[in-house]
Amino acid sequence: MKQREIAALFTQMANLLDYRGENPFRIRAYRRAAQNLESFSGDLERLAAEGRLRELSGIGADLAEKIREYLATGTIGAVESLKRKVPPGVLALLEVPGLGPKTARLLTTRLRVSTVGELEAAARARRLRGLPGFGAKKEENLLKGIGVLARGRERMHLGIALPLANELLALLRRAPGVSRVSTAGSLRRMRETIGDLDLLASSTQPLRAMEALRRSPLCARVLVSGTTKASILTPDGLQVDLRVVPPESFGAALQYFTGSKEHNVRLRELAGRQGLKVNEYGVFRLKTGKRLAGREETDVYKALGLAWIPPELREDCGELDAAKAGRLPALVESGDIRGDFHIHTTWSDGSDPLSRVAKAGASRGYQYLAICDHSPSLKVAHGLSVARLRRQMREIRALNARGGPLRLLMGAEVDILNDGSMDYPDQVLAGLDFVVGSIHSGFGQGEAALTRRLIAAMRNPHVTLIAHPTGRLMGQREPYPVDLEAVFKAAQATGTALEINAYPKRLDLNDAAARRARDAGVMLALSTDTHSVDQLEQMTFGLAVARRAWLEPRHLLNCLTLTQLLAWVGRKRNK
Ligand SMILES: [Zn+2]
Ligand SMILES: [Zn+2]
Q: Which of 5, 127, 258, 338 is close enough to 122 for a disulfide, judged by CB 3.0 to 4.6 Å?
């Protein structure tokens, strides 16, 4: 939890420096450190006590000192003193998507706006459009940004919800009398954002389980505390609902509270047609009231003549018919993943050197990792010139020559420029093992132009994969407009894979789009877009999207062996 608090302060620091127009590299260092801390799952306080903070990716002497200061005092002096140097409300305004530091300066100095509410009122009263550089369009965009921010606050993304849930489950497991625990609700279905966090436990002493939750440091306020249900608020304001049931109805309760609502409605209809009733206590015969199942979730489905349906599919999207017909997909599992694409290192804006990334990949049991640092146009991310790229390729060859189970692929995340051309010449791309094409600029070009750009990139024989195809950042940036069906068609025709970016704020393509891509015959790829080795674990979130998209191993590039993968890349190039 401490790392999240410090990450939030580092983000504030970056925003404040940005507002004051300070060194962009220093700003980026804070942002990067904040991201790394957010994904760090170890014990920060212990690391600090052992004087080992600098082993964290992206943490140098200066930032390590600030972390120690926070752990000791609960504040960071540098952040506090910077806050005093800017007008009130700046930090809140900078959280509005699409509102940069220059605009914030204008709003705070010219209009004396100091809260998001005041900004919204000013925009609705059309008071912004007179300001220098402001038109009606920009005013509308800011209003949209305020909407995105509000929605982002209501729901939490998986990257935050899942670790929190795991922490709470561990705590419940230790409570006396508890025999089984599980997540339920949208988290168990692995939806990309979660409203309330639902937990389920079976216990012979339910009150002790409730007590364990109430006493946890993650409980800031108790909302409800009954005999079978407790609700608390975490310090972040997230609601956690715990239900405790007797062991004999754990399976039925798990099925019931996992949902979705629509899935359960269909399930009850199906039961009714068979003279059965299904609820959170079990499956019963309507006539006699005889109980047929309840202890195990699999038996609940079996009693209704169905195969067990993986939670990710329970959205009333054809899963009940598939289960009845014995045609459920053999969903991809973590053990099927043989490698990761789209990895950044210290050569561009990553925090870890090649050797450390390779070691982390090998320890996950991977066969390959595609190293894809940025191309020269992305200056703020230290994009690689052709000369530096060639030096990096030499270093990769040298590392591969040492042998070992993992092969590093020489790749690049290459900007797709505004006219659809690639940021490296073809002859450079031809020397790479794996080429990722990305749009990082010109989001405002409009749907037709953006679609043309993506298709132009896919027609390049060297481009293997299109990264984050819609560019969204949840709570920060809406997807740019793009004709996905046209993109799918081109991807299929050219033999280009599309990414499911596993970074929890991206998850791009999302589940629905990935399923349509699969139906269009497109090869998909999970990549973590790792900027520090801890983020390799984000594969979990990519897998969640893939499973929700009904993907099997054959739909994913990551499930190919190294030889098959290189052959797949070669097929497009030799077409
Ligand atoms: Zn990118
Ligand atoms: Zn990237």
A: 127
Task: Report d(CA 96, CA 511) in Å as an integer.
Answer: 26
Which residue reads 């729901």 in tokens?
A: 155
260 cis-preceded (ω within 30 degrees of 0): yes
How much distance in Å is there from the Cα of 244 to the middle of ligand 1? 43
| Whether 154 contacts 195, CB under 8 Å | yes
What is the 501 CA–ligand 1 centroid distance (Å)?
Answer: 9
For tokens 């068979």, name the residue.
274
Q: Is the pLDDT of residue 148 over 80?
A: no
Domains in the chain, start-ordered, CATH in brackets? 2-154 (1.10.150.110), 156-245 (3.30.460.10), 256-324 (3.30.210.10), 334-573 (3.20.20.140)
Q: How many CB atoms lie within 10 A of CB 519?
A: 11
pLDDT > 90: percent of the chain: 71
- Compute, in angstroms, the gap from residue 85 CA to the centroid of ligand 2: 34
pLDDT tens profile 497-509? 999 999 999 999 9
Separation of CA 191 from chain center: 11
Q: Is 55 exposed, middle or buried (0-12, 13-18, 19+ CB in 10 A)?
A: exposed
How many whole angstroms from 342 Cα to the centroid of ligand 2?
6
**Rounded CA gap, 243 and 168, in Å?**
13
26's CB contacts (< 8 A; 6+ apart) are 17
This model's pTM is above 0.85: no
Return the ligand number nearest the Cα of 371.
Answer: 2
Q: Cα(259)–Cα(268) distance, rounded to whole angstroms?
A: 12
Phi, psi of 496 (to 5 degrees): -105, 135
H helical segments located in 520-561: 539-548
